[in-house]
Amino acid sequence: MRVYLEAARMSYRCYRTYGAATLAGLATNGFFGLLRSSVFIAFYEGRPIAEGYTLDDALTYVWLTQGMIMPLFLWGWLEIADTIRSGSIASDLAKPLDYFGFWLGRDLGRAAYHILYRWLPTILIGLIFFGIGLPGSALAWLAFALSFLLAIVLSFCLRFMINVVGFWTTDVRGIMGMVLLFVNFLTGFLVPLEFFPPALRAIVTELPFAAMISIPNKIFLEQAQGRDLLLLLGRQLFWVVVFVGAAWLLLRSATRKLVVQGG
Question: Cα–Cα distance between 186 and 176 in angstroms, integer?
Fold first, then answer.
C-alpha cells in the first residue's frame, strides 16, 4: 500500500505546481457557471418548481456539477494512451507493482488536489453569488463524500479502459470524443436526469453514467433519505465493482501479447 499512497502523494504535488492553470480553469468554471445559472433563472421565471427541483436546487446543481468537472476528470485524459504510443508503457508494466492500482493511486492524488483547489472554490463562488444550498447534516456530508469517492473511482475506470483500447488502435482521441457526447448528457451534467422524458429517464438513471454525477448531486441536495440513500450508494458501488473488474480484464487481455509502439 505504501507504493500506491506514495504515487497519490506525488501526483498531488505534481498538480500543485500548475497554479496558473488552476486559476485559469477556475475562472473558466466560474464563467460557465454564471452562464448556466442565467439559463436556469430564465427557465424558472413563472414557475416555482420543475420535476421536483426548485430554482435554488437547480442553481446548487449547476455549481456542484461545475465543481465536479476536474475531480472527475472525464474530459480528455490520455496519459496512459500516450505511454502506449511512445512505448514507455513497457517499463511501467515491468515494475513490481499492480499497474491498475498504481494509476488509480495517482488519479486519487490528482482528484484530492482538484477537490481542494477546484471543487471547493467553485462551490464558494456559487455560495457568494447565488447562495446555493449545502447539506444540512453531518450524515448527508458523509454520504456525499462516499458517493463522490465512488464517482471518482468509476470515472477513473472508464478513462482507464478508453486509454487501454490504445493497445489496439494506438490513438484513442476519436473514441474519447464519442464518449464525451454520452458523458455530457447521460451523467446529468448539462441538466438533471429528472428533466428527461419519463421513458428515457427510466433507462438513463439505471446506467453507470448516472453514478458519476447524478447520484452524488441527488445526495448533496438531500433528495434521498434512509433506504433510498442506501440504494443509491449501493448502485454506485455495484457499478464500481463491475467497472474495476472490466478494467482489469481489459488490461489483462491487452498485455497478453504486447507489441511496443515507437520503442
Answer: 15
